[in-house]
Amino acid sequence: MKTSRLTSNDRAVLLGSRLFANLPAPAAEAVLEGATISRHEAQDVLFHQGDAIEHVFFVVSGLVRLYGTGKGGREADIAVFPRGALFGEKAVFLDQRATAHAQAVHPSIIAKLDGPRLCRLVREEADVAWALLELLCRHGQMTEKRLAEDRLLTAPQRVANYILGQCPGDSPAFTFRLPFQKNVLAGKLGLAPEALSRAFSTLRQSGVIVKGRLIEIRDREALERF
Amino acid sequence: MKTSRLTSNDRAVLLGSRLFANLPAPAAEAVLEGATISRHEAQDVLFHQGDAIEHVFFVVSGLVRLYGTGKGGREADIAVFPRGALFGEKAVFLDQRATAHAQAVHPSIIAKLDGPRLCRLVREEADVAWALLELLCRHGQMTEKRLAEDRLLTAPQRVANYILGQCPGDSPAFTFRLPFQKNVLAGKLGLAPEALSRAFSTLRQSGVIVKGRLIEIRDREALERF
DNA sequence: GTGGTGAGTTGACCTTGGTCAAAAGCTCAT
DNA sequence: ATGAGCTTTTGACCAAGGTCAACTCACCAC
């Protein structure tokens, strides 16, 4: 892992992300001030549970998963962050150590925003505070939704849900490409890879056709009914 | 459900809660301005998924559970809020409808803070923004922790965890009273009541003695090992 | 007391999904 | 094309926990 300054492309990705969408330019610039970039290979661990965190992390490109561990080295994903996502903010704002591990799933470019600086900005710039408040609310809702899903839905239902979440507007049939290995999807949904595979084959009878990473949905209705 | 103004006792509970702990008095007063109180019987539903939410809710006394529903009326608890907890803030800040149902578990006194007013305050008062940011971070971490627990731990392990969480400092043995029915604990832990019961009887062999709502722990070590 | 009600427990059974092992596809470098 | 090293699938098995029903227990009213 090597550290460097932001390229103009990095800046563009950052400024285009949700966090910065409603932030006036000067405030956005202030947030980026002092940010650094690091590159990571797939499987690289960004931090471990218990590590002191002094940055807020931003996925410029690649994919990062956040996971906890149990006995016997078992791992459970807490979240999977695609390009444009922010993480580590909770530990920074609460001035705590990391409560989970973070690992690059793909080769990734990560921007690190200076934690203490960001805390200061939150207190000084109402726009920054508001943007982060919204971001935290969205994160919270996602997590709550996943918790409820885990407790309410079976494996095929969770998969159906995920597929529907990827689907645009209201077309009755569509096709899309998984943005990562099935492996990763399984983790994200809280399933063993084998269970994901079986869930897909259960969904075949509802018009879901899987070829490698390509998912084809023939009958949206049937999926929703599942 | 009837609505009224805050009594001085209500004010005291609010001001003593975590949210207000580090808030200067004028800011705290501003937040409370225009707040109302409502009383609810056990089982009363405060709001349903999909309802428009114009207040942030605060538990002055009693107990409220937040839950989602699946097919066939199955319910899964997302969170259980004791006295002093705040909820509904995510929907308010994102200007969305409720993403879950909320129901009083015990007879409860609920303070309702004016949503739009609070949004305005967040933008005007840095202290308020910061306090809410911290609150959201704590909520988020709790939820993430529960998600990881659900995926990593068996029923007896989750129960052991809960018990240890109730235990003060580092005493090797202690006793405490459940603050609610086992029913509710089961929901909170994502278990059927029967499963909770069985988990308790599994834990007996690790020195956990349950008599009604009274839980006695003889050997903290054994519990942690579980 | 007696009966009633609601919480909690226990047992029997069954579904879901985890685990392990083997087979089947892919991708890529040679 | 060939083989190495993967991801993914499939099959067989098992364990955890949900469900339903019966039973116990505590508490309360009468």
From TrEMBL, chains A, B:
GO terms for molecular function: DNA binding; DNA-binding transcription factor activity. One of its GO terms (cellular component) is cytosol. Residues 19-139 form the Cyclic nucleotide-binding domain. Signal peptide: none annotated. Keywords: DNA-binding, Transcription, Transcription regulation. It holds the Pfam family HTH_Crp_2. The keyword Transcription regulation applies. This is Crp/Fnr family transcriptional regulator. Residues 153-221 form the HTH crp-type domain. It comes from the Bacteria.
